[in-house]
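tokens incoming
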């Protein structure tokens, strides 16, 4: 199966092309031309599959151009997670409410679920083509560490990570700036995530930049969810949640469940939408936002408007986003390429657009104070959650089986946990997280503890306008 552009359905490319060249015609995003459908007979068999087997069944159903052996190798990256047999953990937290913990990988965020296998595929394709690639990622906190980890020690891939200086948690920052491999470069920018993402998209379409890279024997790609390779692996864990419910008798036959997703750039929620489209019995996809509530307005009122909005820094920084890229893929699925192209032009030129209300979604947003209160309330059940996961509790209580997509380990946001539970401030982040872990019979992962003694290798902080030249200087060294 080939992929097409959200802004030009006449374009047709293979998955391997789309992974290595993620910018589609007219600045669009790549999406599959069709989606396979799974029926009840498939799901009866799926309950007997482990996670990697289910993933391979789903991927193979697309009939992409990449060899199955490469996908198998990619999925073997899950062997490095806490449990090599299953990279996630689904836990019941209250009546009808379950948490899908997606943070049991090396950087303790859900981005590992996609970026660990994605990194192997890109590496294998680069080796196969005998080419070297520069992968750029823009991060609001979790994509950066996960991308750097996915490509550490790669001989065919260099990585540049753009993060908003003073716009991530301290642990997220340390995960990036202590990266030690020569093929990795971390750049703090004086701006926010939207600035970083805009710079990424600009560079992907910059012929002068790409020609400069070619002179250094480098080709350009991206690790953000503009790259469909990321979305492909995000579909799978929503499928697995459904299969898990069937296996454990929580759902039977055609019974449905809801999913609550903390969302900024909409990639995670899009994965749920595609899983539903492909046959998982998902009823409502509930979008939880922080005070940067553009998605709340879109799904409640059909209006996407950032004209008079300024980014608000919150305690859930990975969702501090106003330009939510993956919404474009949903628009294409609902309205087609011509209308999507017009809507995106409106957003670029007028900073807004209006659409009919899209069914199957609900949306709410959560203030920092509400978020703190949810962390405190859940801690009384003996469980610690991060601020992004906490936004999902705005939708509680629930009346039917519901899965909260939990996106990060609480240790990455210790100051917010201390504020919620102790009504105080962090004095020593490492000691405070160790004390919290002891109190709640939890464990601080060694990868996080070691950050506090690792040397900070990356100290580059630049203005937005200096990003391109800074990258060029680095690759020429």
């Amino acid at each position: 199966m080939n992929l097409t552009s959200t802004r030009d359905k006449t374009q047709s490319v293979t998955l391997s092309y789309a992974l290595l060249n993620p910018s589609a015609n007219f600045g669009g995003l790549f999406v599959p031309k069709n989606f396979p459908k799974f029926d009840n007979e498939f799901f009866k068999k799926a309950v007997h599959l482990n996670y990697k087997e289910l993933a391979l069944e789903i991927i193979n159903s697309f009939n992409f151009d990449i060899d199955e052996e490469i996908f198998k190798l990619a999925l073997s990256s899950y062997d490095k997670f806490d449990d090599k047999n299953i990279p996630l953990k689904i836990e019941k937290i209250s009546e009808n409410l379950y948490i899908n913990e997606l943070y049991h990988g090396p950087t303790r965020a859900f981005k590992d679920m996609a970026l660990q296998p994605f990194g192997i595929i890109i590496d294998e394709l680069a080796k196969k083509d005998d080419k070297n690639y520069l992968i750029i990622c823009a991060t609001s906190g979790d994509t950066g560490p996960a991308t750097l980890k996915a490509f550490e020690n790669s001989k065919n891939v260099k990585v540049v990570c753009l993060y908003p200086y003073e716009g991530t948690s301290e642990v997220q920052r340390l995960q990036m700036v202590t990266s030690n491999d020569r093929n990795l470069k971390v750049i703090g920018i004086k701006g926010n995530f939207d600035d970083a993402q805009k710079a990424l998209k600009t560079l992907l379409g910059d012929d002068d930049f790409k020609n400069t890279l070619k002179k250094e024997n480098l080709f350009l790609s991206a690790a953000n969810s503009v790259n469909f390779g990321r979305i492909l692996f995000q579909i799978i864990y929503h499928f697995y949640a459904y299969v898990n419910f069937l296996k454990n008798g929580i759902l039977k036959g055609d019974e449905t469940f809801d999913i609550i997703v903390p969302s900024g750039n909409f990639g995670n929620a899009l994965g749920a939408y595609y899983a539903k489209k492909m046959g998982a019995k998902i009823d409502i996809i509930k979008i939880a936002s922080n005070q940067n509530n553009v998605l709340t307005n879109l799904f409640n009122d059909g209006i996407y408007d950032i004209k008079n909005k300024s980014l608000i820094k919150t305690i859930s920084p990975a969702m501090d986003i106003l330009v939510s890229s993956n919404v474009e893929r949903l628009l294409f699925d609902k309205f087609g390429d011509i209308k999507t192209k017009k809507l995106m032009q409106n957003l670029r030129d007028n900073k807004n657009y209006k659409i009919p209300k899209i069914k199957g979604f609900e949306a709410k947003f959560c203030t920092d104070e509400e978020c703190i209160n949810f962390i405190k309330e859940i801690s009384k059940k003996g469980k610690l959650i991060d601020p992004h996961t906490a936004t999902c509790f705005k939708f509680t209580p629930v009346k039917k089986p519901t899965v909260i997509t939990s996106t990060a380990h609480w240790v990455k946001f210790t100051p917010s946990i201390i504020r919620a539970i102790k009504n105080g401030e962090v004095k020593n982040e490492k000691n405070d997280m160790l004390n919290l872990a002891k109190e709640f019979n939890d464990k601080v992962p060694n990868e996080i503890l070691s950050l506090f003694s690792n040397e900070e290798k990356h100290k580059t902080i630049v203005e937005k306008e200096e990003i391109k030249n800074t990258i060029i200087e680095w690759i020429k060294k």
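note: Residues 5 and 30 are 5 Å apart (CA to CA).
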